From TrEMBL:
It comes from Phaseolus vulgaris. It is found in: Cell membrane. Residues 477-759 form the Protein kinase domain. This is Receptor-like serine/threonine-protein kinase. SUPFAM superfamilies: alpha-D-mannose-specific plant lectins, Protein kinase-like (PK-like).
Amino acid sequence: MFEHAIRHKLQKLLSFMCLCLWWSTCIHVEAANDSLKPGHTLNYTDIATLCSKKGKYCLDFQWKDVGENQYLVVSSANNNKVVWMSDRNQPVDGDSAVLSLNRSGVLKIESERRKPIILYYPPQPINNIKATLLDTGNFVLQQLHSNGTNTLLWQSFDYPTDTLIPTMKLGVNHKTDHHWLLVSFMAKTLVTPGAFSLEWEPVEQELIIRRRGKVCWRSGKLRNNRFEHIPEDAQRRLKYTIVSNGDENSFSFTTTNEEADLWWILSETGQISDGKGYVARADLCYGYNTDGGCQRWQDIPKCRNPGDVFQKKTGYFNYLLNTSIEGNISYGYSDCEASCWSNCNCNAFTEFYSNGTGCTFFHWISAENYTFDSTGENFYFLVNMLTNHKGTKKWIWIGAVAATALLAICLFTICLALKKRKFVFQDKKRQRMVMKMVHLATCSRSSAMEDFEVDLKKGNGLKLFNYTSVMAATSGFSSENMLGEGGFGPVYKGILLTGQEIAVKRLSKTSGQGIVEFKNELTLICELQHMNLVQLLGCCIHEEERILIYEYMPNKSLDFYLFDSTRGKLLDWKKRFKIIEGISQGLLYLHKYSRLKIILKASNILLDENMNPKISDFGMARIFTQESVSNTNRIVGTHGYMSPEYIMEGVFSTKSDVYSFGVLLLEIVGGRRSLGCYGVDRPLNMIGHTWELWKDGASSELVDPSIKESFDPNEVQRCIHIGLLCVQHYADDRPTMSDIVSMLTNKSEIVSLPERPAFYVGRKIIHHELSSKGFCADSTVEITTSTVEITTSTIDMTDS
Ligand SMILES: *[C@@H]1O[C@H](CO)[C@@H](O)[C@H](O)[C@H]1NC(C)=O
Ligand SMILES: *[C@@H]1O[C@H](CO)[C@@H](O)[C@H](O)[C@H]1NC(C)=O
Ligand SMILES: *[C@@H]1O[C@H](CO)[C@@H](O)[C@H](O)[C@H]1NC(C)=O
Ligand SMILES: *[C@@H]1O[C@H](CO)[C@@H](O)[C@H](O)[C@H]1NC(C)=O
Ligand SMILES: *[C@@H]1O[C@H](CO)[C@@H](O)[C@H](O)[C@H]1NC(C)=O
Ligand SMILES: *[C@@H]1O[C@H](CO)[C@@H](O)[C@H](O)[C@H]1NC(C)=O
Ligand SMILES: *[C@@H]1O[C@H](CO)[C@@H](O)[C@H](O)[C@H]1NC(C)=O
Ligand SMILES: *[C@@H]1O[C@H](CO)[C@@H](O)[C@H](O)[C@H]1NC(C)=O
């Protein structure tokens, strides 16, 4: 009895499990809802989706562009890539769109506020009909016959958008005279049909890209399943199918790997890409070139030359420029480009509306009128690829080769002469000159070897540059290449043979340091790598010359912008705050990982192409004045940034840097130099002025008028507060750099209130004295107060 009961229970359990299994398969089949039958609807509000049998593609309504327009789209389930969309000129209402197949066989999209979109309307009502999303990504409407076959009534593949997927055709259907072609978007986020089309040309049997009807690219004839002008990488996995008969002329491809997602997409700029690389680049076709399948055409304006191309840059213009606007909203990127190209005054353009239509043209400008910044806007600049780099590079190469050859010959001759003792030096001067040449030749050979070795290692170590390559890079330290006169000697811009831009600092010949110490010192500096520090790339030692090679900073230094009312506008508050943060990060890094002396001042903060700040000249004090460090009379720095303990006692610590940072921070907020003139009745320095306004609760008066529109009052308040904490008289009261970083990033509440700042002098005491000595005009003045005696004029200004 008992056994029987158990068996019975087991049987029940088993059958229950079977039932479960059956159910789950059932549900699975149900879930694979890949078709619409007459009377069915697909409602946007239900977020209902049709997915193909294997789940590769799905059909639904999706948000597609800047206008928040909805379209019915087929997308790949793997990567959500849209491969097809319903009529791009007719968006639907997102909140009410319904796709339906009604009982008379009409396939349509309806929404409350818009005209219905009829995808298929049968000649006479039919009922035995089904719309299915296939695993190829094709959405098909079929009539089912009782004999088991079906006929195709409509398919999405007949209306390609900008994407070609396997088995989708390009070409022409002769029976219906219907053309299959891809048409690009109008702009990146604007799906309406744009300027470029990809077509199959049945006579020549090749693919062509047209821009507004004009052929600009051809693939070349198909040979051995390969098109001449499509890169091999893009074709490797493809098998092309060409159909050419009375019914149709078509091109399509399939992939050798069925599972892989594969598509070609034609972009609004005329590129075809497959997600991994380019298939075709009609954007590089300017009419003068035939490379990569580009087509030559006749009507190139006389003012445009081979090599002229438009390049995308991000940033903003420094001045109000001579511009003109094309407000026609049917103009997209490539139309603007074509307009600018044919107008000889135009050398840059950008889209006018935020949705990417319309154009703004810039006339008579050059890159010098432009500041690069990744947070800026995109512009397309006309540049010439041939004269810009390749040309100069070639000449540098030729020059270098010629110079080397000449030197080798000279050396050989001299060696020969010396050996045979036939060469008699007439005077000492000439002898020295010859010896110099010998030295140069041998020296550059050995350092060329070193260069090579260092390159191989690719380490962070100090790279030694040879003198000839530095000379070549800077055109022999020519005055055109000079960037400025830094504290330690002139700085030049250079371009290495590799095309890399560098800054070359030629130290004034006052260092008494030996080569080994010099190199050791530089190695330490080289090892410091942080995005807010100017990277030292290497050095060159040539006889008495000491040359430092740095990464090149295209946007000059902070003071260039800060203390100029026009350029000050280029640094809005967001950028300034980013700069403050960057400097604090760089300084924190230096405090953590080095004992190097830092000279912090606005002219030592360099800006890269994205306006990121980078501290320069750290560690220079040691190298430059090795023996004079102990000499307190000679202080490398700039007054205004120097802490009181440094000025008076020569005591230098990280808190002195904090002091300088505070001054710099207040300068960035106020856009004024720390030493200047602050009101006739209040000849205070900037710090004192700030302190007074702070106490009066009027610190917003300090803000640079250039950023009046853009500043965030809370952030500014916070910055001024931090700045005042940094410039407190007693070093111990000042926060550390890590405190500052966390205060800036809002992580920690600022609790302490700033005490009296350094060099704060009351209003009355110095009034008469200063006004008689002309505080504003003279930067070296004697300030005498009852508590401190500062004699700035005794400080040797080696660096300002
Ligand atoms: C398939 O989708 C249609 C439309 O949303 C719906 O009416 C139908 O019930 C679904 N069928 C299954 C088996 O889920
Ligand atoms: C979908 O929309 C149609 C038409 O508006 C409506 O008749 C139908 O009830 C809706 N279906 C669902 C499941 O909401
Ligand atoms: C199907 O839709 C069409 C067009 O909207 C309409 O004319 C026709 O009456 C509809 N048929 C049915 C059975 O609802
Ligand atoms: C099936 O029936 C349809 C319509 O009745 C017809 O057009 C088609 O030729 C038939 N197919 C076959 C294989 O019999
Ligand atoms: C801008 O350029 C156009 C044509 O190049 C010229 O006619 C016009 O005077 C210029 N406008 C200004 C304000 O410079
Ligand atoms: C806008 O440009 C298109 C194409 O170039 C042109 O057909 C149309 O007439 C223009 N519209 C206006 C208002 O100028
Ligand atoms: C693009 O933006 C402009 C200006 O806002 C507008 O007039 C135009 O209709 C938009 N174009 C499209 C296709 O939405
Ligand atoms: C743009 O730069 C050029 C020098 O390259 C200069 O001559 C011209 O005046 C600048 N234009 C403006 C508007 O500043």
